Amino acid sequence: MQIWAIVKKSTRSLRSVVPIAARSVWLLKVFETCVLSYNFAVARLGRYLVFVSGYAIFTRRMKARKLVGYSRITLE
C-alpha cells in the first residue's frame, strides 16, 4: 500500500507555493520532473512519493515555500 500526496495547482503567483509535511519538506529529493498539462515535480519522501506542483519553488536545500494544499490517495 502506498500513499501519494498530490499538491494542487496554485491559484496565486508563481512565487506563492507549498508546505507538504512542513518538517518533512527538507527531506524531499526531487528525482524526476514530469511535464504534463500541469508541470509536476515528483519527489520521494522515505517510501512515499510526492507530486509537487510546478508552482512549488525549491531552493538548493529543497525547501518548499508556501503550499496550496494536497490530497492523499491510498493505493493498494
Automatic annotation (TrEMBL):
This is Uncharacterized protein. It comes from Bradyrhizobium erythrophlei.
